[in-house]
Amino acid sequence: MLRFLVRRVTGAVVILLIISAITFWLFYAIPRDPALLSCGKNCTPDVLAQVRHNLGIDRPLPVQYWHWLAGIFAGRNYSGYGFCDAPCLGYSFANREPVFGTIMDRLPTTLSLAFGAAVVFLVLGIGTGMIAAVRQGRFLDKFVSSLSLLGSSLQIYFVGYIAMFFLVAKLHLFSQPSYTPLTQDPVAWASGLLLPWLVLAIIYTANYTRMTRSQLVEQLNEDYVRTARAKGLSRANVFFRFAWRGAMGPIVTLFGIDLGGLMGGAIITEATFSMQGIGRLAVDSVDKNDLPMLLGVTLLAAGAIVFLNIAVDAVYALIDPRIRLA
């Protein structure tokens, strides 16, 4: 297992370097004047000249990339703006603040939204999928499958505004969605995020219901499950010890991809509920033409997906003993 983790982490670092190089090239080589874009909308000639100097536009692109990469480990000085401490992912000239600091300020909101919604859609999705598989072909199975199809066809912005209107404004069943730090007030943290968790979980719950049902139905018809039944093991023992564990592999893979995407910013959900997370930061950066901030957010999303895939591969071996990681 240790060899596997070292090898995968090393590979992940190489992948992130490649992603960062390609992204840097796309953001700073393709635009006709990347300094003008990085400067933001309210840009004066003096500020533009400083941005050009700090980005090193007059230098070859590999040199620009090397200085940016070195800043991650050693920090970087930006003339007229001060020193950006390591890890320095660049400097947002539009917001006049380091990229990494801004991302860290927004990250707790996104993490709270992502992990809270993940708990909801995992419990509901896997639970309803298991019920549908056990009751295969019966009314409950058809009812759950129909609900999952309905849920997958809904859109977050539609459900979110409807929920805000009826559940918050009219019926007052939920408090106004907001983010309060968990360490400051756990109750306010949970109550402010409960409605966004439920709305975001609707779409994902439908996917996990269908995935869990199909995998369990397939596993229940496998030869090793039939053998376990023939040996006289109880129905619950056969279901959870053999069929359930065998079905979790694809579900864990799907969860790793979904969680990585959510950690990169639930853009529509954050915009619907006016939450200042990573997704909203990405949208604002596009609106302001803030290339350094966009580069930082892109790398954060890529890093989350890469390292969560490593975690998924490691969890595979714990769920399914037939898999061995060298």
Explained architecture:
The protein has 13 helices and 4 strands. The protein has 326 residues and is mainly α. The chain folds into 2 domains: 2-99, no CATH class; 103-319, MetI-like fold (Orthogonal Bundle), CATH 1.10.3720. Helix 12 (278-288) runs antiparallel to helix 13. The strands form 2 sheets. It has a two-stranded antiparallel sheet. Strands 3-4 form a two-stranded antiparallel ribbon.
Beta-strand portion reads under 5%
Cα separation of the termini: 6 Å
CATH topology of the largest domain: MetI-like fold
Question: Tell me, what is the CATH class of the largest domain?
Answer: Mainly Alpha
Count all strands and give the number. 4
Give the rounded overall mean pLDDT. Answer: 85
Tell me the structural class: mainly alpha
Name the poorly predicted regions.
none
How many domain regions? 2
Mind describing the biggest β-sheet?
A: 2 strands, antiparallel
Roughly how many Å is the radius of gyration?
Answer: 24 Å
Keywords:
two-stranded antiparallel ribbon, mainly alpha, 3% strand, 2 domains, 326 residues, 74% helix, MetI-like fold
Quickly describe the structure.
The protein has 326 residues and is mainly alpha-helical. 74% of the residues lie in helices and 3% in strands. A hairpin with a 3-residue loop joins strand 1 (76-78) and strand 2.
